[in-house]
């Protein structure tokens, strides 16, 4: 009977439509969770660096005890980073740690015994490895944020996002303005 | 990329099924001959068919779940630790973060030839292996390029297909090796037994038959392996790897260095296709290896990577 066939077709179309909507919603949620996971991934690497710093400071103290000021600054920056509550503070702590570590490394150049120390070079290698992985974690975070933002900004995701109030996420950006300037090499 | 993953999974299933059918067929054919010879209808053929299918299924099971461990012990690879190889460890960790993959178990083959491969059935159960020569001779950007290439293979599920094939080809090589040894050294018994009766003669005929079948089928086996590694997959792994490392020139430079010395002594015809570059040297190239050797030409890979570097975007 054509009437019955018509109803079956309509029901089938509605079911298909609902399935598509569910799949779309799930893909948006799944991407959002990936973004959160990526952010925590950065945290994991940052934590590894925080854990490494006290060890590094102790080793340097053994050879360069009177560089107290520099060492103190590093510890302060590290503590500030660990206690950072929001993204803004964390970014600030990031800059502090980067610049204090830079001066610490510059200091170690004046102490050949320190540079020759096995423990110190091992710690520096670990520090470089972790810094590199922080960069990779940020790269992945930005990649996944781009995927998420694209999904909720383009059609049909934008309609779903409007209904369920999904918001675009922020990219991780370089806060330190000096990092954008060309590097000046002086001999 | 998702269609590539689906294609690889389908291809793995097809390969496993094809292998089981092939072994079953060989067993059944042998059984038919024995039936005819001993004039028993069906006894040998059915038993051997079931026996062959059972062996093929067990082999498939093992190849799916344990292939990564088997391949690693075949190539004599050793797991690395953060203490021993921090440079490699941090690079693999960082690039797997960038790729969104769990970090694969990392191994080293203590040889001077420069080569690498990835293995395992899915990203959670995966492993990457590098030779000492590769780690020592490549600079940071080049090593990152190679690691990213291997991680792409893991992400694309290329390695599932590749490792399944390792076990199958391995089994078939062992069987053909045994055939030829028996044929070469068992010639004397043939003369003796033909005067006694059909007992010994049938044995050699069976062996001969299996040998002939394998000779006929080895081009097909070679085609299967070619099907497994296919140039498209290698190029795709090259370009996906560049997306992870953001520096295609690194891999291009690495390939240039690798092509000059990629020999690995612990590789064989079963595992050769897994490596990033041909692991055979002029000396170690096996007799029947040329059928199975199907790495895409290095110059073409380098050209494509360099085009990527010059291009506007990815």
Short description:
Chain A has 187 residues and is an all-alpha fold. In chain A, 79% of the residues lie in helices and 0% in strands. In chain A, helix 1 (2-63) packs antiparallel against helix 2 and helix 2 (68-82) packs antiparallel against helix 3 (87-108).
Question: What topology emerges from the helices and strands here?
Answer:
The complex is a heterodimer of chains A (187) and B (314).
Chain A: H1 2-63, H2 68-82, H3 87-108, H4 112-116, H5 118-153, H6 157-164
Helix pairs in contact in A: 1-2, 1-5, 2-3
Chain B: H1 2-38, H2 43-74, E1 78-79, H3 86-99, E2 105-109, E3 116-120, E4 126-131, H4 132-137, H5 140-155, H6 158-185, H7 187-196, H8 198-229, H9 231-245, H10 248-258, H11 289-292, H12 298-310
Parallel strand pairs in B: 2-4
Antiparallel strand pairs in B: 1-2, 3-4
Q: Main traits of this protein?
A:
heterodimer, A: 187 residues, mainly alpha, de novo design (two linked rop proteins), B: 314 residues, Zincin-like, 12 helices
How would you explain this protein's 3D organization?
The complex is a heterodimer of chains A (187) and B (314). Chain A has 187 residues and is mainly α. Helices cover 79% and strands 0% of the residues of chain A. Chain A has helices at residues 2-63, 68-82, 87-108, 112-116, 118-153, 157-164. Chain A is rod-shaped and about 95 Å long. The model of chain A has no long low-confidence stretch (mean pLDDT 84). Chain B has helices spanning 2-38, 43-74, 86-99, 132-137, 140-155, 158-185, 187-196, 198-229, 231-245, 248-258, 289-292, 298-310; strands spanning 78-79, 105-109, 116-120, 126-131. In chain B, strand 3 (116-120) and strand 4 form a beta hairpin. In chain B, helix 6 (158-185) packs antiparallel against helix 8 and helix 10 (248-258) packs antiparallel against helix 12 (298-310). In chain B, 41% of the residues are buried. The A-B interface holds A 34, 38, 41, 45, 122, 125-126, 128-130, 132-133, 135-137, 139-140, 143-144 and B 86-87, 89-91, 93-95, 97-100, 246.
């Amino acid at each position: 009977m054509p009437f019955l066939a018509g109803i079956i077709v309509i029901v089938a179309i509605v079911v298909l439509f609902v399935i598509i909507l569910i799949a779309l919603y799930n893909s948006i949620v799944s991407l959002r969770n990936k973004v959160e996971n990526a952010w925590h991934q950065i945290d994991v690497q940052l934590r590894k660096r925080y854990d490494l710093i006290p060890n590094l400071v102790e080793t340097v103290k053994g050879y360069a005890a009177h560089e107290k000021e520099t060492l103190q600054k590093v510890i302060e920056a590290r503590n500030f980073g660990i206690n950072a509550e929001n993204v803004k503070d964390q970014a600030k702590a990031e800059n502090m740690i980067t610049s204090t570590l830079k001066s610490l490394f510059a200091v170690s150049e004046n102490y050949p015994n320190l540079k020759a120390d096995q423990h110190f070079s091992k710690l520096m290698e670990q520090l470089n490895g972790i810094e590199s992985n922080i960069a990779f974690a940020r790269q992945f975070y930005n990649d996944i944020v781009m995927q998420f933002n694209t999904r909720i900004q383009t059609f049909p995701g934008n309609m779903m996002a409007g209904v369920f109030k999904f918001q675009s996420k922020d990219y991780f950006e370089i806060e330190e303005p000096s990092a954008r300037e060309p590097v000046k090499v002086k001999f | 990329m998702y269609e590539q993953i689906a294609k690889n999974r389908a291809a793995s299933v097809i390969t496993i099924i094809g292998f089981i059918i092939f072994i079953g067929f060989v067993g059944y054919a042998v059984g038919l001959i024995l039936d005819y010879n001993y004039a028993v209808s069906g006894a040998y053929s059915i038993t051997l068919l079931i026996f062959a299918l059972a062996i093929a299924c067990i082999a498939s099971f093992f190849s799916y779940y344990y292939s990564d461990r088997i391949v690693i012990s075949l190539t004599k690879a050793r797991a690395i630790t953060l203490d021993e190889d921090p440079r490699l460890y941090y690079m693999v960790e960082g690039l797997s973060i960038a790729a969104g993959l769990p970090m694969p178990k990392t191994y080293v083959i203590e040889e001077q030839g420069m080569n690498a491969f990835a293995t395992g059935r899915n990203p959670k159960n995966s492993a990457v292996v590098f030779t000492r020569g590769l780690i020592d001779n490549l600079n940071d950007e080049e090593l990152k390029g190679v690691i990213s290439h291997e991680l792409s293979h893991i992400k694309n599920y290329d390695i599932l297909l590749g490792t399944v094939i390792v076990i199958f080809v391995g089994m078939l090589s062992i069987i053909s090796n045994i055939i030829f040894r028996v044929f070469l050294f068992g010639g004397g018994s043939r003369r003796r037994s033909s005067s006694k009766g059909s007992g010994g003669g049938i044995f050699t005929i069976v062996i001969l038959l299996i040998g002939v079948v394998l000779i006929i089928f080895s081009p097909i086996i070679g085609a299967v392996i070619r099907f497994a590694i296919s140039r498209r997959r290698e190029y795709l792994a090259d370009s996906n790897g560049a997306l992870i490392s953001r520096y295609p020139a690194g891999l291009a430079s690495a390939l240039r260095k690798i092509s000059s010395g990629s020999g690995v002594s612990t590789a064989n015809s079963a595992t050769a296709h897994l490596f990033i570059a041909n692991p055979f040297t002029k000396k170690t190239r096996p007799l029947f290896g040329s059928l199975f050797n199907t790495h895409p030409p290095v110059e073409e890979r380098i050209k494509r990577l360099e085009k990527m570097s010059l291009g506007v975007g990815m």
